[in-house]
Design a protein that fits this description.
By secondary structure, the protein is mainly α. The chain is 74% helix and 0% strand.
Length: 125
């Protein structure tokens, strides 16, 4: 194989190899590798952030559920603690109202019973 140089002069020697210089494609450059690394870091960071957000949401829901259960137990206990004394007030009042002959005292006992029954209804509802 013979070659021609830039001045169109052919060389008498036989060329056994040709050196071709070309620019590398974009995907063969350092910048492309750097871009891929940065993209990989961003994807991993997004996955970790999503995982952390999910765990935080699960923890928040668990705490919210525990708070709801605690409130429910509290109100159940308070209701019980109020209902018992009211029952112990209403029952003797009924007996006293039946046995009472004085009009003024009976009227006051009926008013007390009415208030106690209204309070019991508020607790029951």
């Amino acid at each position: 194989m013979k070659c021609v140089n830039g001045d169109n002069i052919s060389t008498p020697d036989i060329v056994s190899h040709i050196l071709i210089n070309r620019k590398p494609s974009f995907y063969e450059t350092f910048w492309f590798d750097l871009l891929l690394m940065m993209l990989l870091v961003v994807i991993i960071a997004a996955i970790v952030a999503g995982y952390n957000r999910s765990k935080a949401e699960q923890h928040r829901k668990k705490l919210e559920e525990e708070l709801t259960q605690t409130k429910f137990r509290f109100f159940t206990n308070i209701t019980h603690e109020l209902r018992t004394p009211l029952t112990l007030i209403i029952t003797p009042l009924d007996s006293m109202i039946r046995k009472c002959d004085e009009g003024q005292i009976k009227k006051q006992l009926v008013a007390i019973r009415k208030s106690a029954v209204e309070l019991m209804n508020l607790i029951n509802n």
